[in-house]
From TrEMBL, chain A:
<comment type="similarity">
    <text>Belongs to the binding-protein-dependent transport system permease family. CysTW subfamily.</text>
</comment>
<dbReference type="InterPro" id="IPR035906">
    <property type="entry name" value="MetI-like_sf"/>
</dbReference>
<dbReference type="GO" id="GO:0005886">
    <property type="term" value="C:plasma membrane"/>
</dbReference>
<keyword id="KW-0813">Transport</keyword>
<feature type="domain" description="ABC transmembrane type-1">
    <location>
        <begin position="62"/>
        <end position="248"/>
    </location>
</feature>
<dbReference type="GO" id="GO:0055085">
    <property type="term" value="P:transmembrane transport"/>
</dbReference>
<keyword id="KW-1133">Transmembrane helix</keyword>
<feature type="transmembrane region" description="Helical">
    <location>
        <begin position="60"/>
        <end position="87"/>
    </location>
</feature>
<feature type="transmembrane region" description="Helical">
    <location>
        <begin position="130"/>
        <end position="153"/>
    </location>
</feature>
UniProtKB/TrEMBL annotation, chain B:
<feature type="transmembrane region" description="Helical">
    <location>
        <begin position="78"/>
        <end position="99"/>
    </location>
</feature>
<dbReference type="GO" id="GO:0055085">
    <property type="term" value="P:transmembrane transport"/>
</dbReference>
<dbReference type="InterPro" id="IPR000515">
    <property type="entry name" value="MetI-like"/>
</dbReference>
<dbReference type="GO" id="GO:0005886">
    <property type="term" value="C:plasma membrane"/>
</dbReference>
<keyword id="KW-1133">Transmembrane helix</keyword>
<feature type="transmembrane region" description="Helical">
    <location>
        <begin position="216"/>
        <end position="238"/>
    </location>
</feature>
<dbReference type="Pfam" id="PF00528">
    <property type="entry name" value="BPD_transp_1"/>
</dbReference>
<keyword id="KW-0812">Transmembrane</keyword>
<feature type="transmembrane region" description="Helical">
    <location>
        <begin position="153"/>
        <end position="172"/>
    </location>
</feature>
Length: 256, 292
């Protein structure tokens, strides 16, 4: 009996350790005062972060990434909301069919997606840069945002909405005063998920960006030198993603 | 035709106009970016690459060249994808199973911890494994300092094993997500009934849990397989230079050579090959996981 109790716990702990430890080590080595990400760590300090903060390349990349991430989060949430509201007006069958179609870009390998977008943008004459990357990131953020918002809208209690309409509220007013407060947390959650997905991407950004983003900056550093500076950039990305993800799951009340 | 019919028809159509307007931006993104760029890429896969530019042509032989020139790497890539997808899906399934049925009130916390690693940054994760497995990496430097080895173990990095570990690490949280969703929909009374009638844990999983979770199993497997088989950064960073994956060959068509037709033909060959493998896996799962 104790084996049946112990085994699942050991397994779960092992999987969690496998998932978490590498990221923790990455963060730990970002605080080293040594010149390599290895044991023994001479002492802990913020030296590598100081060097980053002074680096013009890092600042430029962080600014580009901020524009892409925020742009993608806003655009995906706005378009996703419109799409979810539109799907709500269709039959459930049609809505699910459209949702599955919208999810097709998630099944294309990022390399193929990135290369075909690069070729296409060159063909139509769209300059590579923040706009191009935001458009490219919409392909894989929009289906996820739309799915979450549609699920939220279709489980929402419609009685309050009907009551507002019966009392003479215009569709727009009913939406702002009834629907929006109910789905508000999901909207924030979706925006954060879209931002985390955009931040996570390297391959598509690599082919569509005009200047360095944080991930293409890491790529360049990984190809030239291996030093704890990469750990410091990486730790920034990890910290932002973990906070974004935790808050997003709280807002969308993720239950699986 | 009375006024009533006319006004109803008008309301009917104005309702449709609003629906169409709401769906228009998503349609623009889907058709204007996804369908348009992939179609253009597909058309280019039949074009001809000359020294300086790409010229329109109709050359189905581009695909023959791909199979003839890169058949070996393609098979190697598909096998690697199958290994990664199988290992990841199984690990994720048992983790989701344990979280759902065994951990009790610690389940949600374990799930949350697993899912916060969902977006650690794709490159950061690859880099993390490079620092763990490298010659001056964490494992080697720890073993050296403990005096267990005299020289760094060279076989940890730059091989297929490192690629599989790194990709599994990256894909595991993605695979857990749909599997946990499917398992949380399973009725616990059904499992209790099976146990009461004398079915062991393995029997219950095989006959009740797995068949009900089959769509999610397939979704996780497909996601892991497609992302692993299409990946080129992991093999380039932790894999063996002599055993490059198909994605590395695709990417190399776009460096100095800028051979878009060849790269496009390789891309669609890869997608077609992946679809064939996934169709086979899907029909296998349907056959083996029948509810009993």
């Amino acid at each position: 009996m104790s084996g049946a109790w112990l085994l699942p716990r050991v397994y779960a702990l092992a999987v969690l350790a496998f998932l978490v430890l590498p990221l923790l080590l990455c963060v730990l080595f970002s605080f080293t005062t040594g010149n390599s990400a290895a044991f023994p760590i001479p002492s802990l300090g913020l030296g590598w972060y100081g060097r980053l903060a002074e680096s013009p390349q890092f600042r430029a990349a962080a600014w580009t990434t901020a524009q892409i991430t925020l742009g993608c989060g806003t655009a995906a949430t706005a378009i996703g909301l419109a799409t979810a509201l539109g799907l709500e007006r269709l039959s459930r069958r049609a809505a699910v069919l459209i949702l599955l179609t919208l999810c097709l870009p998630l099944m294309a390998p990022p390399l193929v997606l990135g290369l075909s977008l690069l070729t296409f943008f060159n063909f139509i004459g769209l300059k590579l840069g923040v706009t191009a990357t935001v458009l490219a990131h919409l392909l894989f953020t929009l289906p996820i945002v739309t799915s979450v918002l549609y699920a939220r809208l279709s489980t929402m209690d419609k009685a309050a909405l009907e009551a507002a309409r019966d009392l003479g509220a215009s569709p727009g007013r009913a939406f702002v005063t009834v629907t929006l407060p109910v789905i508000g947390p999901s909207l924030i959650g979706c925006m954060l998920i879209a931002m985390a997905l955009s931040l996570d991407d390297f391959v598509i950004a690599f082919f569509t960006t005009g200047s360095n983003t944080l991930s293409t900056l890491i790529w360049g550093m990984m190809r030239t030198t291996l030093n704890p500076g990469i750990n410091a950039v990486g730790s920034c990305i990890i910290a932002i993603s973990v906070v974004i993800t935790a808050v997003a799951f709280k807002f969308t009340r993720y239950r699986g | 035709m009375g006024d009533g019919f006319g006004s109803r028809a008008f309301r009917f159509s104005s309702r449709h106009v609003v629906t169409v307007l709401l769906l228009a931006p998503a349609a623009a993104v889907f058709f204007g970016l996804f369908v348009a760029s992939l179609s253009f890429f597909f058309v280019q896969s039949f074009w001809k690459a000359t020294t300086f530019r790409v010229v329109p042509d109709f050359r189905p032989f581009n695909y023959v060249d791909v199979i003839a020139g890169y058949g070996g790497p393609l098979l190697r890539t598909l096998s690697m994808g199958l290994i990664v997808a199988s290992v990841t899906t199984m690990t994720a399934f048992f983790f989701a199973y344990v979280v759902r049925f065994s951990l009790g009130r610690f389940g949600p916390a374990a799930l949350l911890v697993a899912l916060t690693t969902l977006f650690g940054g794709y490159l950061v994760k690859i880099y993390a494994w490079r620092t763990i497995l490298g010659a001056d990496g964490i494992i080697n430097s720890a073993l050296l300092n403990l005096g267990l080895i005299d020289a760094p173990l060279p076989f940890l990095l730059f091989n297929l094993g490192a690629v599989v570990v790194t990709l599994t690490y990256y894909l595991l949280p993605l695979a857990i997500l749909p599997l946990y969703g499917a398992l949380s929909d399973i009725d616990e009374t059904e499992l209790a009934a099976a146990r009461d009638m004398g079915a062991g844990a393995l029997r219950t999983i095989l006959d009740i849990v797995l068949p009900q979770a089959r769509p999610a199993l397939m979704a996780s497997f497909a996601l892991c397989f497609l992302l692993a088989a299409g990946d080129y950064v992991t093999p380039a960073m932790v894999g063996s230079p002599g055993n490059a994956m198909f994605g590395n060959f695709i990417q190399s068509q776009f460096g100095l050579r800028m051979n878009t037709p060849s790269g496009a033909a390789m891309s669609f060959t890869l997608i077609a090959a992946c679809m064939i493998v996934l169709a086979a896996v899907g029909s296998g799962l349907r056959r083996w996981l029948q509810p009993r």
